[in-house]
């Protein structure tokens, strides 16, 4: 079982780590100290791996091979459950977050047969990026120590951010589309299902001006459909669900 001092030390080292190999070594050390046997830092996308995606995994090789071959990144029940919460959860409680299908139960049984016991997953949700997570797993038959899970939550969050920082170092600086304040207001109202005329009345501007703002926003995103524009703006954090439903 770890203490707060070990968490603080881990976070300080993780913030300055220089490469994925060093991060993997650091993760292996803290994973063992917490009583876990395996760890996985990854984005929930099919990869082999891509340099722009987080993928630092120390699961049983046989399970990793099967997982990749079957492209389970998006459909894996633990990954799907992590999309339903912002805090970590024990795998034994996954059925409280999602309804498990027969296929889900089969995947979990296969993972157990491959050597993975109970585990704890910390979700990572960042606007404009694919969902990810940091997971720690016991060996099959080992007992998860529930007392230290709040500290495991902290380790997982800082670990994923360290991996995310490293994955972005190899990329050229690139910012996504940015909307002006007025464009964002128009797009938020588009997301509410308002017409251009209704938006003009709400904002007190001309209908032609609204049309131009929406067109400029579509051009920035390279999309032609208003619905897709709203989805992209929500995903990137240019507008929020509060903008759409809160007023």
UniProtKB/TrEMBL annotation:
Keywords: DNA-binding, Transcription, Transcription regulation. PROSITE patterns: HTH_LUXR_2. Residues 172-237 form the HTH luxR-type domain. InterPro entries: Sig_transdc_resp-reg_C-effctor (IPR016032), TF_LuxR_autoind-bd_dom (IPR005143), TF_LuxR_autoind-bd_dom_sf (IPR036693), Tscrpt_reg_LuxR_C (IPR000792), WH-like_DNA-bd_sf (IPR036388). It holds the Pfam family GerE. The keyword Chaperone does not apply. It comes from the Bacteria. This is LuxR family transcriptional regulator. It comes from Sphingobium rhizovicinum.
């Amino acid at each position: 079982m770890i203490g707060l001092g070990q968490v603080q030390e881990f976070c300080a080292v993780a913030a300055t780590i220089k490469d994925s190999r060093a991060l993997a070594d650091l993760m292996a050390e803290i994973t063992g100290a917490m009583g876990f046997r395996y760890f996985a830092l990854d984005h929930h996308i099919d990869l082999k791996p891509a340099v722009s995606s987080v993928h630092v995994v120390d699961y049983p090789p046989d399970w990793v091979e099967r997982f990749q071959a079957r492209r389970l990144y998006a459909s894996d029940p633990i990954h799907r459950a992590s999309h339903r919460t912002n805090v970590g959860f024990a795998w034994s409680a996954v059925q409280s977050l999602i309804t498990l299908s027969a296929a889900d139960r089969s995947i979990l049984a296969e993972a157990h047969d491959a050597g993975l016991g109970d585990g704890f997953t910390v979700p990572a949700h960042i606007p404009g990026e694919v969902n990810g997570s940091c997971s720690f797993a016991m060996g099959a038959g080992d007992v998860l120590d529930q007392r230290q899970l709040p500290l495991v939550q902290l380790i997982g969050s800082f670990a994923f951010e360290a991996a995310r920082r490293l994955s972005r170092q190899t990329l050229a600086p690139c910012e996504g589309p940015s909307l002006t304040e007025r464009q964002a207001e128009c797009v938020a109202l588009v997301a509410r299902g308002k017409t251009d005329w209704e938006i003009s009345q709400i904002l007190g501007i001309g209908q032609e001006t609204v049309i131009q703002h929406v067109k400029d926003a579509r051009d920035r995103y390279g999309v032609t459909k208003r619905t897709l524009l709203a989805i992209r703006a929500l995903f990137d954090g240019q507008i929020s669900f509060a903008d759409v439903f809160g007023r």
